[in-house]
Amino acid sequence: MVNVIEIANVSVRLGDFLALRDISVNIQTGDFVAIIGPNGSGKSTLLRAILGLVPLESGRIKIFDKELRMIPPEWIGYVPQLKTVDRNFPAVTCDLVTSGIHRSWPGILTKKDHESVSEVLAMVGAEHLCHKPLGQLSGGELQRVYLARALVRKPKILLLDEPATGIDAVGEDYMYSILDEHLERADTTVLMVTHDWLTARHHANRVLLINHKLIAEGPPSEALNDKHLRAAFGHVGHAHDQPCDGASDV
Ligand SMILES: Nc1ncnc2c1ncn2[C@@H]1O[C@H](COP(=O)(O)OP(=O)(O)O)[C@@H](O)[C@H]1O
Ligand SMILES: [Mg+2]
To answer: Are 197 and 224 a contacting pair, CB within 8 Å?
Structure first.
């Protein structure tokens, strides 16, 4: 098994606050990892640390056994937690997905780029939204379009921060079917932040349960036992009892 992401003794300080404390874990090819923990427990910070968006106080993170700066950007797709667009923002769906190819506007698009955008929009069931202004998309549509943006370059690693927020149960099932399809391709690994462990346990093969430090990791049946859940959440309850993460803590 190849170590796709190697996290060794990682601590992250945000201002005066130690958001992550001495986290060590290895993620392997083909893993579908659910990152679970209460609100404010450092889940988004862990994804941002993997992406190099926050400096490490200590420890190190390697991607495919290399420093992040050695990794081609198209190998990693990211759907951030906060997904809002100003009503009057002058761009349509296709523009946002296209920005996942070139990471900047304006981009010079090839015929193949256009084909990739159409293909990925079809994959997430959003082809019909291509020319719709972003400001007119519903929350669920915006989630899908961001997923398309993350998938457009067929990344080897997909990092998703609360991708089911704002979508209904049917939309959530559909999202999981897209992810399962994506995972069937070789060499792909998914890390998904969620507070809904009941749903996640059916899809993920591994769970990281965190509350600033790593409480437990392993297959859902082992990591999500009552003792660990109590240690992470302070009680064992229904997943939907937990408050959704606020948009302010992206
Ligand atoms: N810039 C910052 N300065 C200080 N604390 C922060 C900053 N950003 C986030 N935090 C705090 O760090 C903690 C972890 O945040 P986050 O990773 O967003 O948690 P989660 O995604 O699990 O809800 C939270 O308690 C949050 O309030
Ligand atoms: Mg978060």
So the answer is: yes
